[in-house]
Specification:
Helix content is 69%, strand content 0%. Helix 5 runs antiparallel to helix 6. By secondary structure, the protein is mainly α. It is globular and about 40 Å long.
Length: 131
């Protein structure tokens, strides 16, 4: 009985250590994603999304809301910086539900675009076509 208990405790502790390490690794992997989005490098962004999917089995929809670029979401940061290619890729990769959800300020992307009078931007048009 004590051997089984020791074995189970060992497995439990190993899982805790691994989960903590995995969280730290994904944070370092995603560290420069804002720079990639703002610089409009869709190739690097695609590679980053694929890397996270391959190594951590996470899709963009799982971690999109956890990333903030100077207080803005990735798509908002792309719109502000006229990063059309990365914004288009993000809009393409995210499900409609994620694009319709309110963000940290309580506004949806569409409401935020309307408030900023950016409805004529190509990114806003791409977004409205998707949702």
């Amino acid at each position: 009985m004590p051997k089984i208990l020791f074995f189970l405790m060992s497995i439990f502790l190993a899982n805790i250590v691994f989960a903590t390490k995995a969280k730290a690794d994904i944070n370092s992997t995603l560290m420069n994603i804002c720079t990639i989005v703002v610089s409009d490098d869709s190739s690097d962004l695609r590679n980053k999304i694929e890397e996270v999917n391959k190594h951590y089995r996470l899709k963009l929809r799982h971690y999109y809301n956890s990333i903030s670029c100077d207080g803005q979401s990735l798509i908002r940061a792309a719109i502000i910086n006229d990063a059309y290619q990365t914004a288009e890729l993000l809009i393409k990769k995210l499900p409609k539900l994620n694009l319709r959800l309110p963000e940290s300020d309580g506004k949806t992307l569409q409401q935020w675009i309307d408030d900023k009078n950016l409805s004529d931007s190509p990114i806003a048009i791409t977004l409205s076509n998707k949702i």
